[in-house]
Design goal:
mainly alpha
């Protein structure tokens, strides 16, 4: 039973950290994380050893969930047309409550301070671009890798809109414009 309790506490820390990182950025201190998770600081260091390791684990969890979802959309929804798959993938990413929010935030906040964790995000983006490129090639044989990059940039633009204080939601227009370029 002690292992189960340890796992539960570690998950509670990961969940608290994810919420705090999303709300306040990766600059949040360990003290606030352990307070939110309701564990002693020594327990935190026993599980994670450092803040960078916690960030790595948080990002890995989010990225693995994203990969599973993208893979599922691309390969499991055989009845869907490619445009519908792209829309589902877009909606998965352009969502403040989704798994992409934390990796997106990491792009801007952790490169210099936590380079190992930052590499996880870059690796995901490279994987994602390759998957989107393969998908786009099925509808447009003249597609280029730049088309896949543009899809990612459209997602990033939607996230910027969602995170902005103006709260102008033009996500659908961004996606429609991108789709019209593929047709």
């Amino acid at each position: 039973m002690p292992n189960l309790e340890s796992s539960f506490r570690a998950l509670r820390v990961l969940h608290a950290a994810k919420d705090l990182f999303n709300q306040h950025g990766f600059y949040i201190g360990i003290d606030q994380i352990v307070e939110e998770a309701k564990i002693p600081k020594a327990t935190f260091y026993n599980y994670f050893h450092s803040k960078e390791r916690l960030i790595q684990m948080s990002l890995t969890f989010q990225i693995d969930a994203l990969k599973d979802e993208v893979f599922s959309i691309v390969h499991s929804y055989q009845e869907l047309m490619v445009f519908d798959k792209l829309k589902k993938i877009y909606s998965l990413h352009a969502n403040l409550d989704g798994f992409y929010r934390l990796p997106f935030k990491a792009i801007f906040e952790i490169e210099k301070v936590y380079p190992t964790a930052y590499k996880l995000v870059i690796d995901y983006r490279n994987w994602f671009i390759k998957e989107i490129y393969k998908l786009i090639l099925t509808i447009k044989v003249t597609a280029t890798l730049e088309d896949a990059y543009m899809f990612l940039f459209v997602i990033d633009g939607a996230m910027v809109q969602l995170l902005s204080e103006d709260k102008i939601d033009e996500r659908d227009k961004l996606l429609e414009y991108f789709m019209s370029m593929l047709a």
